[in-house]
Fold 2-polyprenyl-6-methoxyphenol hydroxylase-like FAD-dependent oxidoreductase.
Amino acid sequence: MAVLVSGASIAGLSLAYWLDRFGFEVTVVERAPALRVSGSPIDIRGDALGVAAEMGIRDAIHDQRVSTSGRDAFTTWVDSLGQPIAVLPNEYATDSPDDIEIARDNLIAILHDAIGSGVEFVYNDSIETVVDTGRVVEVALASGRSARYDHVVGADGIHSTVREAIFGPEHQYRKHLDTYTALVDLPLGSGTAGESVTFSAPGKMFCINDYGHRTIGFMAARTPEVEYDNRDLADQKRVLTGLLAGESGWRSEFLLESIAETDRLYFDSVSQVHMPGWSRGRVALIGDAAHAASLFSGRGTSLAMIGAHHLATELAAAPSEHTEAFGRYEQHMRPRVATAQEGVSEARDFLVPATESQLQARNQRFAVDAAH
């Protein structure tokens, strides 16, 4: 039975591993010319660690955790002069001491290396059309390649091409949470060794995270949704600098200069995806394509890994009854997704306060004097 997986990030790679293990013929198509390895370190939590153990990769994940995994402070907030004013203990941002924080590129490599040699990867290509005939799914790629598959799974993220082709326009399902975020690599040593330091102004956040092997600038701005080309770096920079302009506190000017100079920037809306169903006919969705919780939940990676395990297991148990298999997968995952999506707006308000009063209330709650 042949399955096409769209997207070679955590959800897609995890699903490819399990489908191959269960004997499916798997093809993975990825828009990028190679595996996408950019992004900040990510958390693996709870049952996702059990899934990793079943995949035989938990030890590798543990061995490659970032050097700051398990640090006491999630971040230290500073004033405009860089003086510490508040500290967020790590326990407020994690589920348990067993959580593992790992660089995204390391997890991607571990997942990819675990996949059997029989899985075909097609890079620098993307799905152009998807037609579910009822008996097969006919797919045409942008390169001109076409093929038929028994099933297609969209693991292609919050801006899913598969979702748009089968379920309809993105605006029907994606909910913008009035915030944009950006990540940019910074020179090693430009942060405080082993620490996260954050400066907040009403509706804006500037943060530098030092992970030892890598230093990342993390910025956020509160605003209603704006129009821009999410595949055009210059347009992303234009919007981001416009949202963050006018702030000179702490190292905000250094971060803005880093945005202007970089040729690799992550910039996107903080959004959630809410759908009445994650499958239609022979096509299903997984991970952020189906149920993005947003980066403020900290659970997207775990949901992707757990969801891939459930989807492949159910499909393998009833390969000729995909409707029932997809339904059971969704039934397993719905409660987890609901938990991950709850409270995200509160987390956003906490990390990127919109008003001066919210900002002061947060800083007072976690004031440096109170933390010691």
